[in-house]
Write a structure and sequence with these properties.
Layout lengths: L3 H10 L7 H7 L11 E4 L1 H7 L3 H11 L6 E7 L2 E6 L1 H15 L13 E5 L11 H19 L3 E5 L7 H13 L2 H7 L1 H17 L2 H15 L2 H25 L16 H10 L3 E4 L2 E4 L9 E4 L7 H16 L3 E7 L3 H13 L8 E6 L2 E3 L2 E2 L10 H19 L6 H17 L8 E3 L1 H4 L7 H21 L14 H23 L3 H20 L7 H24 L9
Parallel strand pairs: 4-5, 4-9, 9-10, 11-13
Antiparallel strand pairs: 1-3, 2-3, 6-7, 7-8, 11-12
Helix pairs in contact: 1-2, 5-19, 5-21, 7-9, 7-10, 8-9, 10-11, 13-14, 15-16, 18-20, 18-21, 19-20, 19-21, 20-21
The chain binds one RNA strand through helix 3, strand 8, helix 14, helix 15 and helix 18.
Length: about 575
RNA sequence: GCGCCUGUAGCUCAGCUGGAUAGAGCAACGGACUUCUAAUCCGUAGGCCAGGGGUUCGAAUCCCUUCAGGCGCGCCA
């Protein structure tokens, strides 16, 4: 594998006995622009060790390093030692590697025989799927793809919000204002209406809250009437969620919601008691976390029913036994950070050393016109509506740009849905986002359609080239001398570095950003240099670059959960 | 009140474990399609990196502090 920093570091270490290769490697960086060189060593830190001025060190090293096959020249510029590499050789190595590795380019096997549980999406039963849930779904889905790309075995779990007092509320509302017919006809929309009405009425009549709690308590005792209603609501909801997941090409290995762990809680409570962690406080059972500067973790309410944390603890222990995970990752909103810290600590206090393998991956909230999204008040943008608008807009563009395209509907679906996913994965996950129709339906610039368009453009050139001759993959990289060609190649080279970063930071946006950079470099190259030229050698060389870009774009797109499109 | 997160161009955001003149896109304005898909490309304009201290040869980046916004903080999830 080609590692230009390593080559340079090795070269320097042969000249300076006081420094080992790793130290040098760590300090190497890429200069801000190509005229300065390809790899640089800032000599300021060395100044103290070597007791010379940075400039002097750079000068001396510059004159003592002899050019090699890979390093063409070395320059000292104001304290920096700048290396200029053999660009044709670099291009050849990078493109060859991509040609060989194909859809594995950027991947790794560091995760071999390791299991990762990823808990994502987790919508609440009886509530519509809106933009807020979208984030967990797309971030989790992308992380899963990234982990798999790095060799891990992933278990995707959709931890449905199918248990809790909210169902008491829903049952209460259904009994008071609902009808079987309305729910059957309107599905989740009717359930939401009932839920919203409950909260409106409960403001005037707080006793409704008590009734809701008692219905939930009945559910926990296995009461027939309560359970049947709950199961019915759940079936309706899952059916609707699956439509959304199909649309987005997202899937899960298990749909084990909170209710799944219901019968696994009792032993956990016993265990907590045995380990002396549970104490009674104001009628409830808690784990005190004061010495860890956290509020207590509530385990059982005074009416004996469970809480979110209780179920999370039971679920984690169950998952550890079941899947023997190396890491268990929870993709949920940042507002739940304290909750996760609390119950992670409880797991640790229970004596499980794998408490450190539990990871919360938080993300910022989605707001709408400055207001928080809330199902209770009905203030939501439904995912269904966003997707259909995006698809509609895409179809319109296709009709005007490329009306002869085959499979228009299918392309429009991938393009439109992809645009929404892309935009959600575009900035750092921790940032709050403000939903805007204008932004989500803008297909110019740093967007999913831009990257897809670029990929399709590359495919198109490759297709055209194959109409005349089938070129082999040998090419003369010395014919690729322009700055656009080199820049494109440099960016292609960075891909494996980016996938590693995305993995270690659990940050899909690193890939999304990268795709935009790569697409920009490709489009500049494409615009500036004709590819299907008469000169056979030049054509082969440029075409190789196009193929390498196409492969890398496709690999990146898959990592964020999009299907690379061949024609748009 | 305490804790966590965020603050970079009019808007949306990049900026790696500190490094060379702070980068994109959108919006605005001006250019480029008889030639491989113009959902593209090129150019112009736009910045006391929230304010103030400090550490350092060097700070958007690290530390302290103030301000602004968001999110949490016992029977919701």
């Amino acid at each position: 594998m080609l590692d230009i920093k390593r080559i340079v570091a090795k070269n320097i270490s042969e000249q300076v006995s006081q420094l080992d290769i790793e130290q040098i490697y760590e300090n190497l960086e890429y200069p801000p622009n190509a005229e300065m060189g390809d790899v640089a060593l800032p000599c300021f830190k060395l100044s103290r060790i070597l007791r010379k001025s940075p400039n002097q060190i750079a000068q001396e090293l510059a004159s003592s390093i002899t050019p090699s096959q890979f390093i063409e020249k070395v320059e000292a510029v104001s304290g920096y030692l700048n290396f200029f590499i053999n660009r044709p050789l670099f291009i050849e190595k990078v493109v060859d590697r991509i040609m060989v590795e194909q859809d594995k380019y950027g991947s790794s096997d560091i995760g071999k025989s390791r299991n990762i549980v990823i808990d994502y999406s987790a919508p609440n039963i009886a509530k519509p799927f809106h933009v807020g849930h979208l984030r967990s779904t797309v971030i989790g889905n992308s992380l899963r793809k990234i982990f798999e790309f790095m060799g891990y075995n992933c278990i995707g779990i959709n931890y449905l919000g199918d248990w809790g007092t909210q169902f008491g509320k829903l049952i209460t509302a259904y009994n008071l204002w609902g009808s079987k017919q309305a729910v059957e006809e309107k599905g989740i929309k009717e359930l939401m209406r009932l839920y919203v009405k409950f909260h409106q009425e409960a403001e005037k009549n707080p006793s409704l809250e008590d009734e809701a709690r008692s219905w939930f308590a009945r559910m926990e005792r296995g009461d027939k009437q309560a359970t049947e209603l709950w199961q019915w609501f759940k079936d309706i909801s899952i059916k609707e969620f699956e439509k959304v997941y199909d649309l987005m090409d997202v899937d899960f290995d298990y749909y084990t919601g909170e209710s799944f762990y219901n019968d696994k809680i009792e032993p956990i409570i016993e265990e907590l008691k045995q380990k002396g962690l549970l104490i009674e406080s104001q009628g409830a059972l808690i784990v005190d976390l004061e010495q860890y500067d956290m509020p207590p973790c509530l385990i059982l309410k005074k009416d004996g029913s469970t809480l979110y944390a209780t179920r999370d603890i039971a679920a984690a222990i169950h998952r550890k036994r079941e899947y023997g995970f190396d890491k268990c990752i929870y993709v949920t909103g940042a507002s739940q950070s304290l909750h996760f810290q609390q119950w992670f600590k409880v797991i640790e206090l229970m004596g499980y050393e794998w408490a450190n393998d539990l990871i919360h991956v938080p993300f910022g909230i989605v707001s709408l016109g400055g207001e928080k999204l809330a199902t209770r008040t009905g203030k939501v943008v439904l995912l269904e509506d966003i997707m259909s608008e995006a698809i509609k807009k895409t179809l319109e563009i296709i009709e005007s740009k490329n009306p002869g395209l085959e499979n228009k509907e299918d392309v429009a679906r991938h393009m439109g849905v992809g645009a929404v996913i892309f935009s959600d994965l575009y900035s750092n996950r921790i940032k709050d986002v403000s939903f805007s129709w204008d932004e989500i339906l803008n297909f110019d610039g740093e967007t999913g359609p831009y990257v897809q368009y670029t990929h399709a453009r590359a495919c198109s050139v490759i297709r055209k080239s194959e109409e005349t001759t089938v070129d082999d993959n040998n090419f003369n990289s010395r014919l690729l001398q322009t700055k656009e060609e080199y820049q494109l190649c440099k960016t292609l080279y960075e891909f494996p570095e980016k996938t590693r970063m995305a993995l270690s930071q659990l940050e899909p946006s690193i890939i999304t950003r990268y795709l935009v950079d790569l697409a920009q470099d490709f489009n500049r190259f494409y615009h500036e240099h004709p590819i299907l030229v008469d000169d056979k050698e030049l054509r082969k060389a440029r075409l190789s670059l196009v193929k390498a870009a196409k492969i890398t774009l496709a690999n990146g797109l898959r990592l964020i959960g999009l299907k690379p499109l061949e024609k748009v």
